[in-house]
Amino acid sequence: MKMQVMSSLTKIGLAKQSPAEIVLTTFSPDKRPHASVAGIRTIGKSKVLLRIFTNTRTFRNVLQSRAAVINIVRDVNLLASIALKGFPRFGDFTLKFEKSKHVNAPRLAKTDARVEVEVEKVERSKISDEIGTSEVAYITTRVKNIEVINPSIHPFKRSEFFVIESAILATRIKEALKNGRNKVAKKKFLELSEYVEKCRRIAPHSRELNLMIKIKNLFKNEMG
Known about the structure:
Layout: H1 2-11, E1 20-27, E2 33-43, E3 47-53, H2 57-65, E4 67-72, H3 76-83, E5 97-99, E6 106-108, E7 113-128, E8 133-148, H4 158-178, H5 182-202, H6 207-217, H7 220-223
Antiparallel strand pairs: 1-2, 1-4, 2-3, 3-8, 4-7, 5-6, 7-8
């Protein structure tokens, strides 16, 4: 059974050596479905490690329900939009959910693969960087069910990588501004601008470039 699970985890691109960005779906205490982007990696033969900041709704939901669904999506634009849904102009899309088969959590109705997991252990750790000090939870989960809907391999494009990096930078800029670290925010904004220009050079008419310009414009007033 363990080898079978490990084979399936590897088949959908999850590994210990390289963390993956996925859509994690959970139930709020009132049973409302919630989706967020999280970083994960496999540990052992049938477990997945989640890395989630403790000041988020996602963490509170996982702690309460002790379950979640890992949704593997190959649409990088959807991934970025979910990551940025708390920003103005990024909340105008609708996700469809359905009940999971084996755990107390919702799952995306449309995805390429799903991994239903239950919580085994939660460990908290303080991390400090140029933005400030935060608490992160490393959550060990056990796989209860795996479904592969689209087994085809997706050839990721460089422009898609730029979108993911831009979305991550946007969340860091927002946090830096909230903490009054304006110089750090400016530095991160310059990095974001560089990714926009790189994407413009290699994919000038792409959906990815349009999305990245939209992300950059979120900080137009603060950065000038």
